[in-house]
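seq:
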Amino acid sequence: MAMPNFHRFLTGPLEKSPKSPVIFWLTLTLTFAAVYGSLVLHQAFSTDYVVQDDARQHVFWMQRFIDPELFPNDWIADYFQSVAPAGYTALYWIVAKLGISPMLLHKLLPPVLGLITTVFCFGITIELLPVPVAGFISGLLLNHYIWMRDDVVSATPVAFVYPLFTGFIYYLLRRNLLETGVSVALLGLFYPQCLLVAIGVLIVQFLRLNDWHFQGNQPRKLYQFYGILFGIAALVIVAYLFKSDDYGPVITASEAQTLPEFLSRGKSEFFSEDWGHFWFTGQRSGMMPRFALISPLILGGILPLLLRFRRVLPLSVEIKQAGILLEILLASLGLFFLSHLLLFELHLPSRYTEHTLRIISAIAAGITVALLMDALLFWGENINRKTVTRVGCCLILATLILEPLWLKRFPRTDYQFGQFPALYEFFAQQPKDIQIASITDEANNLPSFSQRSILMGNEGYGVPYHEGYYGEIRERSIDLIHAHYSPNLAEVEQFITEYGIDFWLIEEGAFTVPYLKADRWMMQYQPEANQAIGQLLKGIPPALATVRDRCTVFQLDKFAVLDSTCILTFTSPPL
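struct:
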């Protein structure tokens, strides 16, 4: 029976339909991706001082590409520069030399990465099921995923997983050696963890093609294809291993279990007593953290079940190479459990599954919905209820398109909006080699907005995975908390001299018990935090509080900037 025009347009396979549906559905998919990207851009340029949360650690130091004199002898900037993947660093460096600052580029990149990801997702789906509407649904759902998380929005290394990994899968399906090889290399240069997943996919696929043995009767060209790809991956990995590690060694699991940072309520919480949270939803330990959107998981998850009833799903005969989805799943889960076994040598287990599961669930969901809509249309034609089933298909598409309206935040950007321009300008006018001490949240913004060094920040700078780096950070944090609340001015002066502090940023209320107790970062450093609380409860004022009025050189709203030179002139607190 010939397909009616509507049926053919909506779910007709490419060989039975004109090319125009491909153009229509791809254009529509890119339109939604562009709209979502424009919403992100609107936030990024809504005020003069905007920075993405993770970019405050991974991008701020790149301002050195514009002015090499920035952040001299900055322990934090040097660390994040050392751990940045080579390709990621090179991209920002090249663009900086073209006149676009890293802080601007990190706002411009996300929509571009989103569009590239959308094209590859559409292409992968078409390779598996040559029905354009399936590509549209897959691309739409993957966009919902990436714009409700801050990965792509951050323009940090993880942002490149989505365009590069989908590109790798697309070219692998098409057996295009050059483009697949380039994708493999770029994965290693931008996000090495995902390169390991790609290698896992190649291994599983190679074994499957050889009936799960290393020897088989496949054509010689096939062995050459995989051999070259494995060779490219090996070269990238060797280059990565030879990269200098000035901040190692990597912390062991047994050591991490003794640190409050990794335990419940720690800033890098990993170990959880909740079994389900630890293995499934933990941000660092779980295989499916921060998904929020469950429709692709449900729709994609029922695809294997649907394929057992091919007789009632006429379109299912068009599916080919769908085994790639299983291969990605197996490779991801294998590395997830291996990462748990070798904790933390392969960094965080969640990094091997959360991104790939989003990709394959969105693609599988697109295929599932296309199969169901096609079956619904066939059923409507057989019982002479074409109008009803067509309306049903339109409602399905409308529900998926409008899905973001039911999300709490969409798009989720985690942009940090600077509320104190005068404060940033004050520090920006100071010498480039100053060091600022502060326990306030606002200190986290100063490297990005003022291009000046901070001794320590309480959000994201204390990455605890390299002992050489975190040992210094932990010592700084403890010393900073102790000096901030110490009633002994001599200890404050010793701290200033030891760390070369030029200014101290103080927030109103910082010398009170509720302020300290509410700070998750300070409370993980014990017994220093509790000692400070006990002192305040006894009514003993911190030395900084006693010199605040006389040494304040800048006052704005709830913030005061103290000059360390002034503090050093005191030999004892004023009466």
